[in-house]
């Protein structure tokens, strides 16, 4: 009976065992995983737009090839994650419908514009850096398919972060104009990158339950702090400054203190009032409509060959 199943589930989570698609799980566990995995997938897909903006204008063939590879990786991450979500009994069509109609979210970070080539470096270094800080613990998430998808994603994310860092280093050591362009990009992407980790712990609606289920292994503020501590020395070696006058090493904490985040901006962006929200969703809906013929053709092909007999 239900109580027995609940007991088996609780014991498995407590023992750090993986919950697999065919295992019994509380409806709320299933629902929060669909919510988080779907929004993670949506973030990967929408995240292709800001960077794709620069593929045709990359300054060299090498940079163009790297950026194309990265954008293709993001698409792949989206597909892994939609597949992980489908193991929970939902369909990709349903999830995309919710994205297109604003009933599901994607990461706030992608509602900011990529104004110069240096933004491609800042996104790689900061946005993919933050994503790695968030995704490494997710490799130990209690839900098997999500945790396994994260292992592959994290490997590719490290390349994304390194190429961004290297791009910024080249600019920072370049002409004064190139240095200024790199500094301007870091100034615009730093605070929105900190917002990627979610609201402060005391305003996080899901953290307590997600941590009890070992979906979330560290709180939003813990991972945000970890990210700041990683970035400060990296900014120094880049020869760039982080736009936070309150940033300073705190000896007894053994961590960096940093300034206050503008949470009004965060909640405004989540409400749809960020610089690029409208543009991102319009572009996404257009891409979905223009791609309908591919989905129809693939479905027709699959149906023709589903009888198992090669026609
Ligand atoms: N952007 C948009 N929505 C956000 C957000 C952000 N940065 N941070 C929090 N939220 C939303 C949550 O989704 C939740 O709303 P919902 O109930 O409608 O889903 C609400 O704000 C309250 O936040 P909580 O902290 O209570 O929510 P979570 O426990 O889900 O924590 C999270 C938020 C840390 C983002 C968690 O969902 C998570 O770890 N998700 C997986 C990682 C992810 O989505 N990363 C996207 C980064 S971009 C990326 O990976 C692409 C890379 O390749 C560049």
Give the % helix. Answer: 55-70%
The number of distinct helices, counting runs of at least 4 residues, comes to 13
Q: What class, by secondary structure content? A: mainly alpha
| End-to-end distance | 48 Å
* Main beta sheet: 2 strands, antiparallel
Uncertain runs with pLDDT below 50, 5 residues or more? Answer: none
Mean pLDDT: 97
Nearest-angstrom radius of gyration? 21 Å
β-strand number = 2
Q: Note the beta-strand portion.
A: under 5%
List each distinct ligand once: 3-hydroxybutanoyl-coenzyme A
Shape: globular
Strand line-up of the largest beta sheet? 1-2
Which sequence of SSEs, written as H and E, runs from N to C? HHHHHHHHHHEEHHH
Describe it.
It comes from Streptomyces graminearus. This is 1,2-phenylacetyl-CoA epoxidase subunit A. This protein has 311 residues and is mostly helical. It is 66% helix and 2% strand. It contains 13 helices and two strands; from the N terminus they run ααααααααααββααα. The chain has a two-stranded antiparallel ribbon. Strand 1 (248-250) and strand 2 (255-257) form a beta hairpin. The longest helix is centred in the middle third of the chain and has 29 residues, at 144-172. It is globular, with a radius of gyration of 21 Å. The model has no long low-confidence stretch (mean pLDDT 97). Bound molecules: 3-hydroxybutanoyl-coenzyme A (3HC). 3-hydroxybutanoyl-coenzyme A binds at residues 35-36, 39-40, 43-44, 47, 74, 77, 105, 107-108, 127-128, 131, 134, 157, 195-199, 204-207, 210, 216, 220, 270.
